[in-house]
Batch of 3 targets.
Target 1
Amino acid sequence: MRSAHTVEQVRAAEADLMARLPEGTLMQRAATGLAVAISNFLGSTYGARVVLLIGSGDNGGDALYAGARLARRGAQVTAVLLSDKAHAEGLEALKMCGGRVGSVEDIRGADVVIDGIVGIGGRPGLRPDALAAVQLAEQFDVPIVAVDTPSGVDVDTGETPEPHVNAALTVTFGTHKICHFIDPAATACGPVHLVEIGLDLPPAEVESLQAADIRHLYPVPHGESDKYSRGVLGLMVGSTQYPGAAVIATAGALGGPVGMVRYVGPDPVAEAVRAAHPEIVAGNGRVQAWTIGSGLGDELDIPRIRELLDAEEPVVLDADGLKALDDSGDHVDVLATPHAGELARLLDVDRATVEAERLKHARLAAERYDVTVLLKGATTVIAAPDGQVRVNSNATPWLATAGAGDVLAGLCGSLLAGGLSPLDAASLGAYLHAAAANLASSSGPTTAISVAAALPEATRYLLRS
Ligand SMILES: NC(=O)C1=CN([C@@H]2O[C@H](COP(=O)(O)OP(=O)(O)OC[C@H]3O[C@@H](n4cnc5c(N)ncnc54)[C@H](OP(=O)(O)O)[C@@H]3O)[C@@H](O)[C@H]2O)[C@@H](O)CC1
Ligand SMILES: [K+]
């Protein structure tokens, strides 16, 4: 599990630890890890030209001490001071090791620029000098390594309302921050490298499941299992208008842990589903969970869906089915899987607002509708009505293909029927869907059906590893 904490949580943990350690210990731990990460990024430190952009706080201090270490190992290090309050001891250390103070002109011809403008103490946006320096690095194609956070992003929300650094690598300390997990800021971080500094932290604000968590949570059958005890999923998806949605969602469901799938829908669609997947059963019967919504089109039956939402069995509600959601009643066992446009309609805001403030709107919808929300996108945000948030970031952009959402809805339903909570079903579903897409795509085009077909292999790999 990866964890992201708020600035307030990090500050409190830092204060606790600093009270027990000699002054400056944490900054030295951070700077050591930062210098190693920059060395690895550069490949060779000796003779490398490194420019440090230094703001007024400890973020600049980290960059200066790391610069001193790199200078000691033969790098040509130049600090560009963007404030007259640069960290004095850090600057002294840099000069002692052969580093010097220069100007933005040094960015031309540099091998790397280190963003020590602001970290967790920063407000969104860049001041004019910093913005000019960052634009120069972009103009000359010099990669930027961000210290702790890319300067200019909103650290606690992942929003980017103002200009900010786009990093090739972010090196962070103690724990991840929310901007490392939530888009659009997450994209601005590039890969994120975490340096341990020994903070003792409370439960995280946002979590991201890793392979070991998937292995631990997956409902693996045992010796006594039969097809019913593994879970039966009811699928109310597809229509005579969109029969493909039913075929694709069924493929997604069968790629999950469920023991049996029942298809409930018009006869010609049931025939198409049966032709593609002879293992399904058509018609009503007892189920442990439902997936409702993909491709219902004009055949959407809102009163029937509301009956199922009010019934005992948990429900994945997707696409057209989301129109049946209302904000009265208890829906804690409902998992809604909107994309940004559908979430915007549920909250009566425009799509761009949801895209810009993904965490906030996923949380808002979870609270207003009392459901778990899985907001689809390059990084998936999952918000539960009790305030828990998880993200998934392992998706390939090739997954943006027609029908991929239907596979996800079927798979999440399968995981719900297998006995997982909506939060776990959503987290595992997003992870496995992305893992299968990586396998099916292998860095090239893929289709929804190929993603569904890759689910068993992706799952097998994760369960074995
Ligand atoms: N916590 C930990 O565990 C550890 C923390 N460590 C490190 O400390 C960092 C936090 O340091 P910090 O608290 O000094 O804040 P930081 O982000 O450097 O600067 C804040 C100052 O910048 C200014 N400013 C604000 N917005 C701005 C903007 N948009 N553009 C430009 N300037 C802006 C504003 O000052 P002003 O100029 O307004 O007077 C504000 O006071 C943290 O990210 C990590 O790197 C590690 O060393 C070890 C462990
Ligand atoms: K920074």
Target 2
Amino acid sequence: MSFLNKEICDGDNPDLTEERRTATFDTDRMAQVIYGSEKFAARRRQITKSISRIPALQDTKPLAFMTREEKITEACRELDVLSDHWEQLIYVNDEEEALHLHREVIGMEGHPFALHETMFIPTLVSQASDEQQEKWLGRARKREIIGCYAQTELGHGSNLRKLETTATYSPSTQEFILHTPTITALKWWPGALGKSSNYAIVMADLVIKNKSYGPHPFIVQLRDEKTHQPLPGITVGDIGPKMAFNGADNGFLGFDHFRIPRGNLLMRHNRVEPDGSYLKPPHAKIGYSSMVKVRSRMAMDQGLFMAQALVIAVRYSAVRRQGFLEDKSQEVKVLDYQTQQHRLFPSIARVYAFIFCGLETIQLYEKLILDVNKNGDTSGMADLHSLTSGLKSVVTHFTGQGIEQARMACGGHGYSMASYISEIYGVAVAGCTYEGENMVMLLQCARALVKAVELVEEGHPEKLSPMMAYLTKPSVTVDLTVGPEAYVKIFQLIAKKQAFKATEQLHKFMVAGDSRDVAWNKSAVELTKASRLHTRLYILKTFIRRVESITDISVKAALTDLLNLHLNYELLDVASYALADGIMSSTQMDFIKNQLYSSLEKIRPNAVSLMDSFQFSDLQLRSVLGRRDGHVYQNLFEWAKSSPLNQSEVLPSVTQYLKPMMEKSKL
Ligand SMILES: CCCCCCCC/C=C\CCCCCC(=O)SCCNC(=O)CCNC(=O)[C@H](O)C(C)(C)COP(=O)(O)OP(=O)(O)OC[C@H]1O[C@@H](n2cnc3c(N)ncnc32)[C@H](O)[C@@H]1OP(=O)(O)O
Ligand SMILES: Cc1cc2nc3c(=O)[nH]c(=O)nc-3n(C[C@H](O)[C@H](O)[C@H](O)COP(=O)(O)OP(=O)(O)OC[C@H]3O[C@@H](n4cnc5c(N)ncnc54)[C@H](O)[C@@H]3O)c2cc1C
């Protein structure tokens, strides 16, 4: 049975066409599972199709040959074209559709609206009062103003309690005075701050009558709405080129006693009254909700980054022929090598797993904001914070590794910017740092774990949240042949042991006289290990849950093969813990390895279609190696010919330096 007739094109590379014919499932149906619903998967396709009909968005110059200024200009041109077609392309105010539109058209190198959509608007939604939303949210959604999220400073990013920018309340004028007291207090890093935004959410230490109340969000106009000139009292600019994201103007920002009205403190959850009295929020960390929002999206977004790299690597591996196996008359596709499969397929499994987690955490955040805004119920905050802290750290780390493996799997051509994998890598690994440096966030997750272990030790297991319930599971002997649940049990034992060991170490240092902070630091590596295992257990369980819920038999079968690969790969990856603690025997290890190798063989015929199912267009992929039609070589040559260096036969540097040097050498 061939499912993919609609996607097979006679003009495509025959090796790729052959791969598509061997698929055992329908890629449209798989896309429904990936994107969470039939409706959204279909909308994505529809949007992609509509974009392909807009000539001004098609024949764009390769970004690799552009300067930063050109990249920023090109992104702005594309945004302008999109703006003209916005209402025909997507449902207005649909965040997922807007993200898809931007990803598809502008790519990943950043653009002036990136933070506007992902943090500025969400902060207004979660932190602004109804009255404030009336004033700013509509304008922001209509893109009359462009905003960003200015929190990190030159001197502090992780430790928010030490942010130095102050917002001092003046009861006589009912204004806040924003001030940057030192060089280290300059806001530094915010995306789209440098040149594009005219508004910002500024996180500043709220000071009333000489008392500090910690970081609070303020909406601040930075630039004149007509001239775009910075307002008096504001210093703002671009921080310079970065490892990636060079189409974005990450910026710096300083205030010189800059006054804003009292009503610019976002006051949905806390208030400053005209006389300066302060009304506390229902939860001390409610002002951090925009960070939780982005973290809750990161499993999905990082999964999609890794998926892009893997589409490229898998398609290319199916058209790249090199070396022989049995048949000496034809070289094999490199995808047939077991090492290539082992390099790529576990990452394919992780992509699916991460995306399933993302679908869940995005919904959890939406529910949380509804609970908080409608009912003042903040009870879900701690759990979502610890879950998303661990998840963003684990997912970004493995995404970086997976993309780098994808690059290496493409051999020399993977290193060329024509593959686009280096850009995807640069963008993805920024996620290890932004929205909370990974170690810092793993340690946040560890705080919840240690508390849970302490509850068990104090005899209160009934107080554990469902995610921590495994900490009470007794040790058992497990027969791995019975299926996924057996793997979960072993993983639970490994994660539990590590959580108890790390907590025991923490307590030991404290009993020996160290303060909790010092003991914490002496146990930090063990604590981060516990957080990783805890998070990987969540990922594994989410993958199982999701696959179990699928109704399409052929899609479910293909994903069951991926799930089995994931279970065996993950368990093998943490086997040192299991062996050290006697949780697993070496015979079980051999069983896992054999299962892993046979999973690779099962997945092989579906590999291309598992990646085609993401339905990225060539416009979005921007990769010569990852082209849908597989015509790699002639297009690599065309790409190289379009390099600015090849626009003349003799470069001025040759005439100016090399020729005279060679002439001198002849004398
Ligand atoms: C939407 C994505 C679109 C996809 C497109 C992809 C491309 C996107 C392009 C660009 C996006 C880039 C965006 C990047 C934006 C940024 O980076 S914004 C800046 C982000 N900065 C951070 O994340 C800073 C990290 N630091 C912190 O979050 C905090 O300082 C801290 C959590 C480490 C500590 O906070 P602190 O106030 O000092 O808290 P403590 O006193 O230590 O903790 C007291 C208790 O509160 C708990 N807690 C902390 N935070 C939260 C929270 N958010 N919710 C609930 N609870 C929280 C903490 O765990 C403590 O609990 P216990 O006392 O019970 O232990
Ligand atoms: C591409 C990009 C986009 C960004 N966009 C924005 C934005 O839009 N808005 C914004 O406000 N910010 C933004 N940032 C800033 C980003 O959020 C911070 O860089 C990030 O939170 C890390 O903080 P830091 O730079 O202070 O790192 P540091 O905290 O200085 O980290 C340095 C090292 O110290 C370690 N460390 C720090 N504290 C601890 C601790 N308590 N325990 C153990 N180890 C610790 C870290 O693990 C790390 O190894 C962006 C950053 C990047 C790279």
Target 3
Amino acid sequence: MLVTAATHDIVAAEIAREQDHVDRVYAELAKAAARVELVHAEGMARGQTDRKGTGDPREEELAGLFERDALVYNASKRRASLEYQHEGLVFGRLDLDHGSGDGSDAADREVRYVGRLGVRDDEYEPLVIDWRAPAAAPFYRATPADPQGVIRRRVLRCRGEEVIGVEDDLMVPEAPEDIVVVGDGALMAALTRSRGARMRDIVATIQQHQDEAIRAKAAGVTTITGGPGTGKTVVALHRAAYLLYADRRRFESGGVLVVGPSAAYTAYIERVLPSLGEDTVTLRSLGDVVGGVTATRFDSQEAAALKGSLRIRTVLGRAAREPIPGAPDTLRVFVAGHAVRLDPPQLASVRRQVLRHHHRNSSFEAALVALGEAAWIQVRQGEREEFLDKFGDSGDVEAFAREWWRPVDPREVLLWLADRDTARRLGKGVLSEEEADALAESLTVATSTGEWSVADVALIDDLAARLGQVVDLPSEERGFYEIDELDDVSQYGVSAIKLGRDTADLAVTPQGERTAYQRVVQDPMERLLAGSITAGDEYAHVLVDEAQDLSPMQWRMIGRRGNWASWTVVGDDAQSSWPDLEESARAREEAFGRAPRRSFHMTTNYRNAKEIFDYAARLIRQYVPDADIPDAVRDTGVDPVEQTVAQADVAAGVTAAVAELGAQVDGSIAVITPEKWRDALAGLEGEHDGRVLVIDPLSTKGLEYDATVVVDPEEIVRTAPGGARILYVVLTRAAHRMHVLQVR
Ligand SMILES: Nc1ncnc2c1ncn2[C@@H]1O[C@H](COP(=O)(O)OP(=O)(O)OP(=O)(O)O)[C@@H](O)[C@H]1O
């Protein structure tokens, strides 16, 4: 729109008009906040004086009022904590015509305001409608072809409580005389803005096709597909907020789980739902889905592929049935005057027998009984019942069983596979020797660094399901799941010597006991086994982002948390870092069960300037000819800058690019570099007032920046799991500017 002095005045008048309404809304909220304080104080006083019985209708009334006001009160507090650059509490206005539809008769008109939450005045008249309410749907659904009674849709831009702009879309061919239309359209204004470090909500500019996915029915599985930057993530998050609104009882009490690829991703999206007024959703990255373990490290491609594939389940199944390394392997006792001796083969047969019917960690009693039966077969003298009673009462037998059949932590069982021979033996027929060695090797990285890998987490979860919840041992022993902190890792059968660790670094008391307080805190093994694995929660809705990257084992892990859930699944196969999409699809289908499916396909890229996206699209077409390529809607007239630098000049080249970009964009700048150049570039982190971030290719999944410097794309293709697909991810992260530095 051409901005002249006259249009400037018109816009200012429209802003002032909207400000009046916004002021009324905030005044109403302030009144509600004061009222709730009063009711609260009164309720407390009543509770202390005449609180008798529960049937007092006044009290119920008060409770109802209190509850309603409390919602408003909390909402007003939440509003106060919103970042100022968020669209305000009231962000939309609809001018509707309930008559002929063209707005010609002002008597048929209705003005409806749309906001983050509903607010009514004293007469209970709505001042603002919650964006998720059915009455707000035309704000998102109306188009000139199908205006749905809307004459004008207006987006209000606010900073705090102040209206700073309005952007209109006209839905009828010609505006009625008294309806002013200003602005260039809210969507373009939103897309051109600087991005900042956190994803923002898009309530003010949700597009029609996005709204359909957001408001789709909860039941079953809703799939959202589309190329990079098509709003899949942001739509899915708004869908979570919508589901909470539409069926709060079910989803707030049952829980909503949002799973994304990395901790950087969860940090990036964590503000979206709170800004929509929802803070009951659980956000998890794939590395911290299992309570008690947090992993951010990635395995080598080979190890990750191995650990993600369903073949590994056979190996884990075998490991879960293994005897505990270092535990006694022979039982020698005197019972009722008979010498009993059970050797390893007999004990192995007892173990197989027990595990046929029981989970290992809850079968101490069953193991004792089975030992008794095996002992009786050997003795067969006297009364059977009497022998078994004595056997069961024997302190020696119990002492043996407490070690031989103690509860095992799934993490410790996984670490048994860090031993090459064990990995080869348990991998026989499933893994080649090279693969078994790679598995052992990758777990040795864990034991030396003290950090689990992201792929390990799904294996720990699988083992936890196999081993079962620990049932307390009789007498004073504490169950494993109650142990808050390990006192001694050797109690978990991870033999220090076997893993090449020097036991001397564990502090020892004069009594010869190791204590929690005297240990060397930095011990890697201790870090791996710290805390306890908590039993998996189940959720009523599970939302999986970047679903194309989940390995089959990760699908099983998520599936355990969504046995009864409805699902929203978001992904784009062309951005996948997982090599076997078919095996993943099978595991995914298993997780979903037979629930009905619906899918939405997004075709518009809202993130990247057209010039940047075209550059990326050219690349991916070479590698994935049938990639799902969206249309980018916004051009800047500025092509990505491509440069070639010598190895010795990488740091200088990147520094220069960052300096240039720092002057061109206001917001975030990411230097995306393969491991090879990471150390050389680490110093750039935090430059330009903290706007510069140095990040590895895989961790950029799902994220976006105002500008990016892509370092050594060839090396990214060579080293990232997913190769060119990850380069495609990397090349589609910048909203406004991109520099690509080839290294020769
Ligand atoms: N209707 C909209 N209004 C304003 N911004 C939007 C809209 N839809 C999408 N965007 C913006 O487009 C960008 C890309 O969205 P999002 O990250 O959800 O895409 P994606 O499809 O998940 O991308 P990728 O697959 O590359 O991770 C975000 O900045 C988002 O806020």
